[in-house]
């Protein structure tokens, strides 16, 4: 890549977050006109892409698996901000916003991001390899979080309907943070080697770890550029949350006009906030670094539950109305199938394109049933 192209790309990724913040401030009070909404949507997409770039710059500086963790947490910040803002705006779907968005994030990460990464990686490299020990521990943590926060509320008797009582919600929040904290400690300190890219033989069997210093990639960026990217990443995330908030009434009106169930709003929100993860996962899969792609997928699923539910639990102190977390029967069946298929996918530490395709079919099934339950 020439110095000119690098400079142009760098300038573009600097301008877009600043422009997004300017548009957010200028349109906050009045944004009903269609030309303004189109402008907001375009700038929002640009802010998401810029956020991906700056997250990758920071990730390259700190190395794996810290890079994947940073992007997962950054995306979850977007998700939490959107859910809280939408819940404060009221409406008929307020009580299920958190559940629908978190569950949609689970389906998109476990089937969509993981599926497209496996498919792209296997198509390009014939077989893809990853560390089954690290990825398996990530999946087990996601399953435990989903069970505590999304499945059990449908079976408890202290709360009304599919809700937790106040004490149960508090326990679920603490348990979620404990599980997430334990995994982060394992991933970044105790067993970091289980979550870095691996090398493999012609049959896809893992032979070792990728040497970050001799893998042919560019050197990490200087500290000044990394700090600048961190600041621009924060600015881009703030802009994404705010701009998506401005677009949310239009999303809700469109869903209602099309006659779709209100849960589709949560699906749209999840698709929006997980766009940075999806792009980064595909890029890494194309470079035969599926381990990073899976770190992103499972890390995002984990953060989506482990950080969102505790935040919503605290927000319920001042938010009025019920908080429905328990999944519907169809959602529980989809979650169960996804868990079984994911377990079989990662068991051997290598995968063909078929596994990626199977996950994408499950994602398509979820999306179709969301529109036509």
From TrEMBL:
Its main location: membrane. The keyword Membrane applies. Pfam families: Na_Ca_ex. Residues 34-188, 229-371 form the Sodium/calcium exchanger membrane region domain. The chain crosses the membrane at residues 12-30, 36-54, 66-90, 102-123, 135-155, 167-185, 227-248, 254-275, 296-319, 331-347, 354-371. Keywords: Membrane, Transmembrane, Transmembrane helix. This is Ionic transporter y4hA. It comes from Nocardioides kribbensis.
């Amino acid at each position: 890549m020439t110095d000119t192209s690098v400079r142009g790309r760098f300038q573009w990724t600097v301008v877009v977050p600043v422009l997004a913040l300017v548009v957010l401030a200028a349109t906050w009070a009045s944004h009903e006109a269609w030309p303004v909404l189109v402008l907001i949507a375009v700038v929002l997409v640009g802010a998401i892409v810029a956020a991906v770039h700056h997250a990758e710059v920071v990730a390259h500086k700190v190395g794996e698996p810290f890079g994947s963790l940073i992007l997962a947490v950054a995306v979850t910040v977007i998700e939490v901000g959107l859910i809280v803002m939408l819940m404060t705006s009221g409406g008929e779907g307020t009580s299920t916003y958190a559940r629908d968005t978190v569950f949609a994030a689970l389906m998109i990460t476990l089937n969509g991001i993981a599926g497209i990464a496996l498919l792209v990686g296997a198509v390009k490299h014939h077989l893809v390899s990853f560390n089954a020990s690290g990825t398996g521990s990530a999946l087990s943590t996601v399953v435990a979080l989903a069970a505590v926060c999304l499945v059990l509320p449908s079976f408890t008797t202290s709360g009304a309907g599919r809700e937790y009582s106040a004490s149960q919600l508090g326990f679920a929040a603490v348990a979620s943070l404990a599980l997430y904290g334990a995994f982060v400690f394992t991933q970044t300190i105790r067993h970091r080697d289980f979550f870095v890219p691996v090398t493999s033989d012609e049959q896809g069997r893992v032979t070792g770890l990728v040497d970050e210093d001799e893998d042919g990639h560019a050197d990490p960026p200087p500290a000044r550029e990394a700090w600048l990217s961190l600041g621009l990443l924060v600015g881009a995330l703030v802009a994404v949350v705010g701009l998506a908030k401005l677009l949310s009434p239009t999303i809700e009106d469109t869903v209602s006009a099309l006659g779709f169930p209100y849960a589709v709003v949560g699906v749209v929100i999840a698709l929006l906030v997980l766009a940075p993860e999806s792009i980064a996962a595909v890029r890494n899969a194309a470079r035969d670094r599926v381990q990073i792609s899976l770190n992103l997928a499972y890390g995002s699923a984990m953060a989506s539950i482990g950080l969102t539910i505790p935040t919503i639990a605290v927000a319920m102190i001042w938010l009025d109305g019920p908080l429905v977390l328990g999944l519907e029967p169809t959602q529980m069946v989809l979650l169960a199938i996804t868990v079984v298929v994911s377990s079989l996918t990662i068991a051997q530490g290598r995968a063909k394109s078929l596994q990626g395709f199977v996950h994408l079919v499950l994602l398509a099934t979820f999306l179709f049933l969301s529109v036509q339950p």
